[in-house]
């Protein structure tokens, strides 16, 4: 991707000074830790970490990021702004025909993802917004810790709301966004580019 080299520093997760990520463990290893602690066992089960769910295919990515959505209470009924991240044509289409965001409204980024195997922790969503090649915004939000969902359903994560810019200058031109889902070890689970424009209405 064209902006890949210049964005690398901005797309690295912020690390807390003195924090060192522990060695990665499989779901089976986590399930066996402190097996006699009942409250810990319940917490691990809520993350999908059970001895029953430890067998399975551990090849392929630990995480599959499925969709990115822009959610807002001001969206007209029935309108949805979502990108299927498994459809390269749809991602490319948003670069040619940017998503329209209403100016001066509250909205939030929402992603849907599936944990395929193992346990994820320290995983973040980061995006860099550029206009005319200059960085105008950066968002970095933690996903949390998850194991494979026992029901097989994907997880949905809503990030903190923010307000879209407003005014004639904000509405002129489009904004290019580079998004990434990455963990503290630097493992990248998803990396894509998309665009949006601001307008008076959705």
Automatic annotation (TrEMBL):
Sorted alphabetically, the keyword list is: Cytoplasm, GTPase activation
What subcellular compartments does it reside in? Cytoplasm
What highest taxon heads this organism's lineage? Eukaryota
Which source organism? Scleroderma citrinum Foug A
**Is Cytoplasm included in the keywords of this UniProt record?**
yes
Which is one Gene Ontology cellular component term of this protein? Answer: cytosol
Q: What InterPro entries does UniProt report for this protein, alphabetically?
A: Ig_E-set (IPR014756), Rho_GDI (IPR000406), RhoGDI_dom_sf (IPR024792)
- Swiss-Prot/TrEMBL GO biological process terms: Rho protein signal transduction
Protein name in UniProt: Rho GDP-dissociation inhibitor
Family under the similarity heading: Belongs to the Rho GDI family.
Region: Disordered; residue ranges are 1-23
Entry's Pfam families?
A: Rho_GDI (PF02115)
One annotated GO molecular function is: GTPase activator activity
